[in-house]
Amino acid sequence: MSSPTRLPTCLVLPALATLLGLPGSGCTMVPRHAEAASVAEVCGSWRSSVDGLVLELRENWTFTIVPPADSGRGPVTGTWFADETTIEFKNDADAAVCPGVPGLYRWAIDADGGVAFEKITDDCPPREAHLDDGFTRVAE
To answer: Is 102 inside a domain boundary?
Structure first.
């Protein structure tokens, strides 16, 4: 997705806008072309077909994984960055599950409007297990 010395456009543009005090954030700050439209499509809330947890991908490049209430697990937060074909999730350093561990996936919106993830590399088995199955958009 990106080299260690080059930040992805989806990270640089929102950060630059924030530093300069410009309006807008996250997905909307990516230039408007095919790539930007694709990235904008993945923003929002998605329900897992594994156990019903909800993955919230916010335009400010943060995410929250909200497990079902009866699971006994708490939410997991972190950051995400995407381009038109790949997405990287990185749990916060204080996360209860896989703290600070990044995971890189291919992603695509399917014909039914769901999102699918295909692992490229991830050393977080719980995240990998959940992202292995599809997600449907949560109605807002």
So the answer is: yes
Q: Tokens 């919230």, residue? A: 56
CATH number at residue 51: 2.40.128
Instruction: Specify whether the CB–CB gap between 93 and 79 falls below 8 A.
Output: no
Instruction: Decide if 73 is inside a domain.
Output: yes
Among the residues of the chain, which ranges form H helices? 9-20, 34-42, 125-131
Of residues 129 and 14, the one with the higher pLDDT is 129
Task: Provide the strand spans (E) within the chain.
Answer: 44-48, 54-57, 62-66, 76-82, 86-91, 102-109, 115-122, 135-137
CA distance 123 to 130: 13
Residue 7 belongs to a domain? no
pLDDT band at 130 (very low <50, low <70, confident <90, very high): confident
| Other residues' Cβ atoms within 10 Å of the Cβ of residue 9 | 17
